[in-house]
Amino acid sequence: MWIDTRFGKTHVIKTGNQNGKPLLVIHGGNYTTPYELIKLMCVAPQTVEKSVLVVPAGFANASIFRLMMSAGIPMILYAITKKEKWLKKVILPAAVEEKNIDDATLEMFKYSLEHVAVKNHIPTIVNAGDLRRYTAPTFIIVSEYDRVFPADKTLAKAKEVIQNLKTHILKGQGQKFFLSDVDIDMIVRFINE
Fold it and tell me: What Rg, from alpha-carbon coordinates, does the chain have?
């Protein structure tokens, strides 16, 4: 179904048991989607019964200088040359290793860089005061080698500001992550608890 919003029409898929509890799944994009849920947790905590945040923004950021050196400069060089080698270098901080960059990822980044106005801000960090009224069970999944939102700093901050927290680290993965069947089962068990 299509819903009119102040930003234009938004596509929403409504499915499942009409008498069951609602489950809102927000597809990630531009590294900020879990951040939007975190903001909801801050301003309307009573509306969130449980949350699962996968590789979330809002708890810790990498150094701007490091991000510019690892992805920003290759992004500029790709914009100028349109060479695949620069596109791969843009993706590499997220993918960790070149073997994790498949054709679909290359195509998605190519179209994103060429046709989408990418937000160029780093999300602000939440603090305990922001989440003081939020008590719902929360499951945060981070990637071990995430260069954008470092796992160790993200988990340390999350433990400081979220009262009812479960965590998991995706070993060997970066910002571009892959959820195994085991990871998905863990999420489903958390939601069903």
Answer: 18
Report the amino acid identity of residue 150.
P
Going by pLDDT thresholds of 50, 70 and 90, the confidence category of residue 53 is very high
Class of residue 55 by CB neighbours under 10 A (exposed 0-12, middle 13-18, buried 19+):
buried
DSSP 68: I
| Helix, coil or strand: residue 77 | helix
* Statement: residue 99 has pLDDT above 70: yes
- pLDDT digits 0-9 by tens, 122-149: 778 898 899 999 999 999 999 999 888 8
| CA angle, 31 then 33 then 36, to 5° | 125
Q: Are 67 and 147 in contact (CB under 8 A)?
A: yes
Round to the nearest angstrom and report the end-to-end CA distance of the chain.
30
Ordered by where they begin, the domains of the chain are: 30-58+123-192 (3.40.50.1820), 64-115 (no CATH)
